[in-house]
Design brief:
This protein has eleven helices and twelve strands. It is an alpha/beta fold. It has a domain of 241 residues: TIM Barrel (Alpha-Beta Barrel). It binds S-adenosylmethionine and iron/sulfur cluster.
Length: 352
């Protein structure tokens, strides 16, 4: 299936078997970690106003892990029982040769990896959808907050809606299952959400709504952006018949089925519906910094371990440390006007 993809990235398969499969990743609250979100770049071709400022400072490229290092890290996590990897960013598809990493990881599918997926803004998806499908990717999350071209241009500070829609269509044509993710934003897409959901469902895509999180300085007042999803859900319930679904994808979404559209709708609601007790995830940035919690400052440096004289032992120790410090829950607050961001780092570092 993956024969068309060059194996260059997987230069030393199974180089790092961190601790062996016998030692699964279990944190201090007995949560088993099986899901890695791996950011491959902090760069992006959009500037979503809730994610980053227009004049975003990106990391020097030399600080970012090479594709080989990313593969070695992923291998280390797989050896400790991670069976699902989501590639994210920044925008993962702006990284040159990123398809080689998908190809290399895709070779593990059906062996020690169950699922390889990505989150993308969709601008480059038309170019890469077929290669992703060839690499074994079956599902992609595409972020789409509005179907209105002007609003899109204002929100992302780039006039790229046509490319994104083309990308979504290409993904569907390549046989990828698309889930649309929309951040619910007060006074921005608030009154369009039902239309966005109806469109997505008519196209055969699941749709998930996300509450904005106070990560990084973004020039705007966070509280002005924040739209609680419990109120959105109540509004949608006045229009449609919503039935709780036990569907799960391994992420933090809870789902409802919408009778009138025949589609599935997810809610990622860190503020109005805390999901931390079921957390099965770890996040690694493109510089190899492991953040055990999206909403916490705790951090472990995997790059230093990876580049040390004893990468195997040091990575094992670093992963154990991450499990030890993974907090029970996030401490985001969305009730203080003018407050500094809960965390200085932007969502584009850890990839959502
Ligand atoms: N660039 C890709 C994309 O947009 O899909 C992947 C990275 S992006 C950081 C991942 C997800 O995080 C996107 O769905 C985006 O809408 C969401 N996101 C970014 N900043 C956020 C914030 N402050 N609060 C909530 N979601 C955010
Ligand atoms: Fe880029 Fe994704 Fe952040 Fe938008 S949300 S600026 S597309 S990283």
């Amino acid at each position: 299936m993956n024969d068309a993809v060059p194996p260059s990235v997987a230069r030393k398969p199974d180089l790092i078997l961190v601790g062996g499969a016998a030692r699964p990743l279990v944190d201090a609250f007995q949560r088993r970690i099986t899901y890695l979100r791996l950011s491959v770049t902090d760069r992006c071709d959009l500037r979503c106003s809730y994610c980053m400022p227009e004049r975003m400072t990106f990391l020097p490229k030399k600080e970012v892990l090479s594709l080989e290092e990313l593969y070695d890290l992923a291998t280390g996590f797989i050896a400790r029982g991670v069976n699902k990897i989501r590639i994210t960013g920044g925008e993962p598809l702006v990284r040159r040769d990123i398809i080689d990493l998908f190809g290399a990881l895709g070779r593990r599918l059906g062996h020690d990896l169950e699922e390889l997926t990505l989150t993308t803004n969709g601008t480059q998806l038309a170019t890469h959808a077929e290669a992703l499908a060839r690499a074994g990717v079956r599902r992609v999350n595409v972020s789409l907050d509005t179907l209105d071209r002007e609003r899109f241009a204002e929100l992302t500070r780039r006039d790229s809606l046509p490319q994104v829609l083309e990308g979504i269509a290409a993904a569907k044509a390549a046989g990828l299952k698309v889930k649309l993710n929309a951040v619910a934003l007060k006074g921005v897409n608030e009154h369009e959400l039902a239309d966005l959901i109806a469109w997505g469902h008519a196209e055969g895509h699941d749709v998930t709504l996300i509450e904005v999180m106070p990560l990084g300085d973004v020039e705007e007042e966070r509280l002005d952006q924040y739209l609680p999803l419990d109120s959105v859900r109540a509004q949608l319930a006045a229009r449609w018949t919503l039935t709780d679904s036990d569907h799960r994808t391994g992420g933090p979404s809870t789902y409802v089925d919408v009778a009138e559209t025949g589609g599935r709708l997810g809610f990622i609601a860190p503020h109005t519906g805390n999901f931390c007790s079921g957390c099965n995830r770890l996040r690694v940035t493109a510089t190899g910094q492991l953040y055990p919690c999206l909403g916490g400052g705790e951090r472990v440096d995997l790059r230093a371990a990876l580049r040390s004289d004893a990468p195997e032992a040091n990575l094992a120790a670093a992963l154990d440390e991450a499990l030890r410090i993974k907090p029970e829950k996030h401490h985001f607050r969305m009730d203080q006007r003018g407050a500094a961001p809960a965390l200085a780092r932007h969502m584009s570092m850890t990839g959502g």
